[in-house]
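Consider the tokenized backbone below.
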């Protein structure tokens, strides 16, 4: 009875709910119409004029215009369109699984068990994986991967990372409280740069980065309105880092900013070089003398192919330089699940180890990390497997070792194949791919093509390559290069069969391009 009374009263006020809704809508519509009649149409708050200018300055070539064009061509082919090729081969990015690399079985088993603990009862999963998953889950709130962790990461995973670093660096001590889990290495790099960038005008933070560089660095510098300080790698010496070039870049930068940090990528992206121990010692001595903060991007530390090269961590070399250096040089090193032999890009797992940071600044770092709550726990679990893999005495070791060796062996073979085929093409010079996942060949572009392209000759080259062959690579200008030199970056991740096809198409296109623009036979 009460409900009927309420409904009757409501009906008297508003004969129809639907009608009331229409009236409200019509009233809003009438007001909008009146606004248009008055010539006062509401303007958008966020426009290109009001957009943060630092966002407009950001560029990221790895997913830039060439890649967008490749996506358009892919859709065109899927809809039945015709091109001189049947597929687009995306060699623009180091995405191993997208290129067909199979996951490491043990890693996926542990993450699966963490995600769905009911699988612990399944005989299909090895005990080696189960005890790791149980240990990780015990460190998670509610024993669930769906919980938040502490902002620096799950404690037992941080301890596993510290143990891994000590083993890798042959006994150099690592404190687990200096370990911070990150959402991929990129998240850690951005976080540390946020701490470092300050000042105005000539006191603005200068960030020294290698050229060529991974575009994350230039993008972050633009977004934070810091000052990019380029130091050029020596292409004629297999992209080695020259200490004299560091001094030149530093002294020139001091005229307009305050250089506070030097970034190193080792093994190199996009250049594929592996820095020698002597070179690392010189960089660390330079940082010590000039009071620079050191950021060492070591995500490709497992990707070393040249028999005469070896990965040396900056931390280990710093330790071996003696207490005066090891107790004072501020160093952050980064690692990731995305590269190496696992190629687990989608988990977005990573960590950073922070050395010699001022305790008060470290508290500010923890505060900054707490704003983003925590990295994804699935990525943290994946990172734990990388630093705590099966050991020789464990049942799963044989399969794990076979899979890891197969991935790294294939990459070494493809690194050599890429170098050999590209260097056999007139007008292309490719340094040895000592490590990482990319080749960065130098290409000769005839003057006629340079004139036609005006601003970006290598962009013209890569766009033509895409449109005529379906091969998607990234222009060297997106990574930085010396004036009047031109390059492109390509990944070596495709299968041997597909890589042979890719390189053959690049060879044929380049010769055709030279003939078109220079008339050379």
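A designed sequence for it:
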């Amino acid at each position: 009875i009460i409900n009927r009374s309420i409904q009757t009263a409501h009906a008297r006020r508003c004969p129809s709910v639907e009608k009331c809704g229409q009236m409200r809508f019509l009233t809003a519509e009438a007001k909008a119409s009146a606004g248009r009649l008055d010539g006062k149409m509401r303007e958008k708050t966020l426009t290109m004029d009001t957009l943060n200018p630092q966002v407009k300055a950001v560029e990221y070539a790895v997913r830039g215009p060439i890649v967008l064009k490749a996506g358009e061509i892919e859709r065109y082919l899927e809809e039945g369109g015709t091109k001189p090729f049947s597929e687009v081969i995306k060699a623009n990015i180091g995405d191993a699984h997208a290129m067909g690399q199979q996951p490491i079985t043990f890693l996926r088993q542990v993450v699966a068990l963490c995600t769905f603990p009911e699988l612990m009862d399944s005989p299909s999963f090895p005990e080696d994986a189960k005890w790791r998953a149980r240990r990780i889950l015990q460190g998670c709130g509610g024993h669930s991967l769906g919980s938040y962790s502490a902002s620096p990461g799950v404690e037992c995973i941080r301890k596993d990372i510290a143990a891994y670093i000590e083993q890798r660096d042959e006994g150099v001590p690592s404190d687990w409280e200096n370990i911070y889990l990150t959402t991929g290495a990129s998240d850690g790099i951005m976080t540390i740069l946020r701490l470092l960038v300050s000042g105005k005008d000539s006191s603005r933070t200068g960030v020294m980065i290698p050229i060529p560089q991974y575009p994350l660095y230039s993008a972050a510098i633009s977004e934070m309105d810091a000052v990019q300080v380029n130091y050029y790698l020596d292409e004629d010496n297999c992209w080695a880092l020259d200490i004299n070039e560091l001094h030149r870049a530093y002294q020139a930068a001091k005229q307009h900013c305050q250089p506070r940090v030097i970034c190193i990528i080792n093994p190199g992206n996009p250049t594929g070089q592996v820095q020698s121990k002597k070179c690392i010692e010189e960089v660390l001595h330079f940082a010590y003398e000039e009071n620079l903060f050191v950021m060492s991007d070591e995500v490709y530390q497992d990707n070393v192919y040249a028999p005469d090269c070896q990965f040396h961590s900056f931390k280990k070399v710093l330790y071996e330089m003696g207490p005066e250096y090891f107790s004072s040089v501020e160093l952050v090193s980064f690692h990731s699940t995305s590269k190496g032999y696992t190629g687990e890009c989608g988990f977005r797992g990573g960590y950073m180890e922070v050395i010699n940071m001022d305790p008060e600044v470290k508290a500010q770092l923890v505060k900054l990390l707490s704003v983003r709550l925590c990295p994804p726990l699935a990525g943290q679990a994946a990172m734990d497997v990388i630093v705590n893999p099966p050991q020789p005495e464990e049942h799963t070791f044989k399969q794990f070792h076979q899979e890891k060796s197969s991935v790294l062996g294939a990459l070494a073979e493809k690194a050599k194949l890429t170098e050999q085929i590209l260097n056999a093409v007139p007008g292309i010079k490719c340094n040895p791919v000592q490590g990482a996942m990319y080749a960065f060949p130098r290409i000769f572009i005839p003057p006629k093509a340079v004139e036609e392209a005006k601003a970006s000759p290598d962009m013209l080259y890569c766009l033509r390559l895409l449109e005529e062959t379906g091969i998607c690579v990234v222009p060297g200008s997106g990574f930085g290069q010396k004036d009047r030199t031109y390059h492109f970056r390509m990944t070596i991740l495709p299968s041997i069969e597909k890589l042979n096809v890719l390189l053959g198409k690049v060879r044929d296109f380049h010769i055709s391009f030279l003939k078109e623009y220079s008339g050379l036979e």
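The longest strand covers residues 258-265.
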